[in-house]
Fold these 2 entries.
Entry 1:
Amino acid sequence: MRLLAYLITAMLFVGPAHALDEMDIDGLYRNISPPQPTADATKVEVLEVFWYRCPHCNAFQPYADAYQESKPEYVNFRRMPAVLRDSWVPQAKMFYVAESLGMLEQVHKKIFAAIHKQEKPMSSRADIRSFFVENGADGAKFDAAFDSFSTDSQVRQADAQTRRLGITGVPTIIINGRYRTSGQIAGSYETVLEVVKVLAEKEHKRMSK
């Protein structure tokens, strides 16, 4: 079992034979026009756009976690739930409710597990409420957060931002509001992280001038 775990870890983090540069990543990302504002203009933002019910997003999480743990100091890593259709709204609300209750780090992976391993739909208010209460949330505080104007506003903003960023599928990674890449564009999740690394460094140099 230890050998199997080692092999899985090795396969996960194996990347291209050499570190990529700007010439290597030509065609592996798309420009965003016009560039979109970021949450912190003093840092390079790397934004993961996802949907909890997306199996590809679930598969991408170990890569996103690895990047978050090893990212340069100048990078601000964030997540945003995509809203590409009305049926995606409940999962977007889950994200912002978790954030409002200070539970996001605690439940983010658990939500993916509940949907993709335990096969819970997590689409109805009742299911979502039960999940949060089971994970330690106060029921009344959940209700207040779920029904709040703030949560609804954040979902509407995510909806609008999903479209402004030109996102048509997930997971998608946005680099500093200027570039967009994904497994479909780059060819693999390993290459996505290489593209992110090159473009984040490029943005850092541009912002440092």
Entry 2:
Amino acid sequence: MPWVGAVAIICFGVPYKLDGEPFDAFVGGLSDRPILTEFVGEAAGIQVDFTPLGARRCLGLPMGELTNRVVAIEDVLGPRAPLLAERLQGAPGWVERFALLDAALLRRLVAGPEPAPEVAWTLRRLTQADGRLAVGALAAEVGWSRRHLAASWRRDVGLGPKAVARILRFQRALRLVRAGHPLADAAYECGYADQPHLNRDFRALAGATPREVTFVQDAAATPL
């Protein structure tokens, strides 16, 4: 499911397949489309969920380069990344793994680029509103043009504010649907034009209808 953040995963068991391509360790940026994740056998590993601005600082590259992409971890973190993966897999326990990972991430955070304060402010405002703020209003709050704000967001976040607003609205609708709210009520509460509009966004962002998403959750929660 799309969410407003980036992810890094290091597999200890079988590799994951993402849209059919195998990865032992990978990084994915913000995405406004579904990505099919598969594995066969016993999967294990460690996952790091980044906020958009945390990813910008830690990964150290313009986040637009990772938008709607999944890449091998060494392509982002450099040739020493496979060594870190080996050390994590070979560590005696999770306390040691988290200590190794924390140290590696903190080094990169200290040395990484600082996102623009205006981007941080507008991202926080948009998140607090679950995406229900106009881009023009956000730009006005920081005294920027819409074009400059969108370009800065693509650098520091990976997607523009309009695309992120769409994901935030979808995430709120998903929470309401999973909590049992009628689809028409969820559409109204989240600012969709109507229920078909909500259905279209679910298909575009999750690859499924709202009822299909709810069915998958219910099936997963049912004890065998």
